[in-house]
């Protein structure tokens, strides 16, 4: 593990052990403690590799490891699947895919499971993107860049790529969409609004397709 967030080695180790213990309890009867510990350690390293701010790295590790284990349970049939799952992928997972995921969560009212990831996750979500979504009453306070992992692709029913080329692995039986959407990162606010509205129209259309 890199464990480079400035905390003493033993403190970071203690935090990861607590996370593993909590997730072991959460997934009791689904995954072994060994599997959970492995996922927590791997998740920390994945996030640490692309992190520019490490202040909340342990908390993000807990959230992302829980999501990854949920997806692993979904694709292996160990947990109950009740709604379709959509994965949005862009390059850094700080722009297009974050906007799309937030918009889908907002419009789907819990009837779709939503994921987002980056083929090369890096940086932080720009304030213009947060503000543009805030204008629609959609908070993006919990968004953070996440790497593209195998289980999140395999657990998805629909994979939407947004400017990441062929970085996303292709599995049979899944629906793949490629949305040609401009990159809002570093764009002026008026441009970000146009991109937001473009993604919003596409998301609403996707919801209609999922209902059919």
TrEMBL record:
<dbReference type="InterPro" id="IPR036196">
    <property type="entry name" value="Ptyr_pPase_sf"/>
</dbReference>
<dbReference type="GO" id="GO:0030612">
    <property type="term" value="F:arsenate reductase (thioredoxin) activity"/>
</dbReference>
<dbReference type="Pfam" id="PF21234">
    <property type="entry name" value="Phosphatase-like_N"/>
</dbReference>
<dbReference type="Pfam" id="PF01451">
    <property type="entry name" value="LMWPc"/>
</dbReference>
<keyword id="KW-0560">Oxidoreductase</keyword>
<feature type="domain" description="Phosphotyrosine protein phosphatase I">
    <location>
        <begin position="84"/>
        <end position="209"/>
    </location>
</feature>
<dbReference type="InterPro" id="IPR048716">
    <property type="entry name" value="Phosphatase-like_N"/>
</dbReference>
<protein>
    <submittedName>
        <fullName>Arsenate reductase ArsC</fullName>
        <ecNumber>1.20.4.4</ecNumber>
    </submittedName>
</protein>
<dbReference type="InterPro" id="IPR023485">
    <property type="entry name" value="Ptyr_pPase"/>
</dbReference>
<keyword id="KW-0059">Arsenical resistance</keyword>
